[in-house]
Amino acid sequence: MPRYDYRCRACGSTFEVSRPMSEASAPAACPEGHADTVKLLSTVAVTGSARGGAPAPPPSGGGGGCCGGGCCG
Question: Which residue has the higher pLDDT, 19 or 72?
């Protein structure tokens, strides 16, 4: 279940709420009971390494564009 970050405008505390995506835009009261909260923009960091397989080949020359990379005259 996704977690959403909120900040209370009344007391300044930051807190998380776990809820279904269908309720992502629903208001959330802070743990102190204040209703004036704002949903924060969250970022997701994905880290790790690829396993198995060979590395991807480098891109080939050319560069696309009209006529497969050349200038049309």
Answer: 19
Bridge partners of 8?
A: 37
Beta-strand ranges (E) seen in the chain are: 3-8, 14-18, 37-39
The answer, yes or no, to whether residue 50 has pLDDT greater than 90, is no
Measured distance CA(58)–CA(71) in Å, rounded:
24
Instruction: Indicate the average pLDDT of the chain.
Output: 81
16 by DSSP, 3-state: which? Answer: strand
**Long-range own/partner contacts, residues 50-59 (CB < 8 A, 24 or more apart):** none
**Residues sharing a CB contact under 8 Å with residue 10, sequence separation 6 or more, in sequence order:** 30, 32, 34, 36
